[in-house]
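Wait, mind explaining this?

_____
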Amino acid sequence: MIEQLVLDTLLNAVKELYKQDIPSKLAQVQKTRPEFEGDLTIVVFPLLRTSKKGPEQTADEIGNFMVSNLNEVTSFNIIKGFLNLSISSKYWVKFFNDNSKLSTFGKHPKKKLAPVVVEYSSPNTNKPLHLGHIRNNLIGWSIAEIIKNSGQEVAKVNLVNDRGIHICKSMLAWQKWGNDVTPKASNLKGDKLVGDYYVIFDKKNKEEIKALVETGMEEDEASTSTALMREAKEMLKRWEDNDTTIRELWSTMNQWVYNGFDSTYSRMGIDFDKVYYESSTYLLGKKLVDQGLELGVFFKKEDGSVWCDLSDDGLDEKLLLRADGTSVYMTQDLGTAQLRYDDYHPSKLIYVVGNEQNYHFDVLKLILKKIGKSWADNISHLNYGMVELPHGKMKSREGTVVDADDLMDEMYKTAKQTSEDLGKFDDLSIEEASSLYNVLSLGALKYFILKVDPKRTMTFNPAESIDFNGNTGPFIQYTHARIRSIVRKSKALNLVLDDSISHDYVFETKEKSILKILHDFPEITLQAATSLSPALVANYAYELAREYNQFYHEVMILKEIDSEKRNFRISLSEFTGKTIKYAMALLGIQVPERM
């Protein structure tokens, strides 16, 4: 691409003009700001120590070298320490002719590397998926697709946390107060039913804590001393001892939840290549703990609990097995990591998990290294920020979370109401309108979440996300539909389009602006894969859609008298539409043909 050509020529220019090689970090090439003439800008200031001349003289010398040695550069201008280069129309013509008809524009060649494993979702089987899970799933799925698009083989995996004290809390509450209710009998999805009993456990347990505190017990002690908590711990011990009754109840209630999860995943457009279950990985984790004890890396305390002392590494002691022999999250994560390595031998293992778990993954890598797993260095934690609502944070135990299914229902209603208020789809049948509302609502939800850098905490506002103007999914979807309408009309008019434009075509400003943005797409997808940020692709799609809408309003397309200009603008529109569709597909967002 042109940026690399300019960068390489700049390094040669410095070597030829000033007889020195410079570090590549000093060669800075960026897009020219809109208010200045030019396409690419070289920042001259970092080069002054090498040139030993003023910024304008240095810029002039490098500019002349560029024009003389790089055919693609036709002229330059200097604004203080910035050298603005104009790229020849022939370059843009060639770019358009070479790429506009490609179905694979933006897709990179396959690499012969070990696969990348991306873990996302990782739900607990004691509650339904909620808004936080939506962000996790959307980021994880999109990152996997973006990495795959970069040429890497990818395995999308899920770890279902289907055992542990939190699962036993739901089971115990159902045993005590469920009266044998089932999802079918209650007309509830299984994950919602089980989640209700998790909330009931918390409510009842808080009542017991309050009673103990009133007798004079400290709250911290009371929180671990309630009869309910003791029963839950005993249930977990019986589960790990393979108690038949507990295992059967666990299997039944988990299946209710799995069925509920599958329904939500399907609606959200989320899939996995492989699903792991904590109940199948924790035993391997226990074996690794035993190995660590044999190696002297771990130690037992007097109560029988097993720990790893990380104080020499600037951390603290980490619990690996409880005194009663039951495992903790770290135990199963050790086992799961080993299984993933055995299954894929990945070049990288990416965990998409919230930033509150940063410490956990630092510890995981360190412990794996201590027991001799050299591949631990391949572990990467994509730590995303929490997603909140305008009224604040969510709490699962208190039942204040925003259920994923409920949110998607609400998004559908909002899309329907907004569209009807604007009178946008009055000519569609009920079935067509319903399908379109679903595409718009999911597009709005996914785009609003993915346009924000993963590392940032964000506030999700459903009403804002549905807006047909501004940086939203529906705005981009509407732009695609507008483009498809132009293409359909051109065919109805029997316009014969050339497959290419002549090498001396003179671009108008808005035509060239769109070409320049299109030109960036392959590089943007690579940057997104490297930085693990779908936000780069999302905001690129918006920039392209916004620029196209300005182009649409400022120039004639179908009514243009000059046939070459008309045909080029139609082809440019089609190229833009295909790129928008491709970019949005990397985010898991559909774009409609009609709106």
The chain has 21 helices and 14 strands.
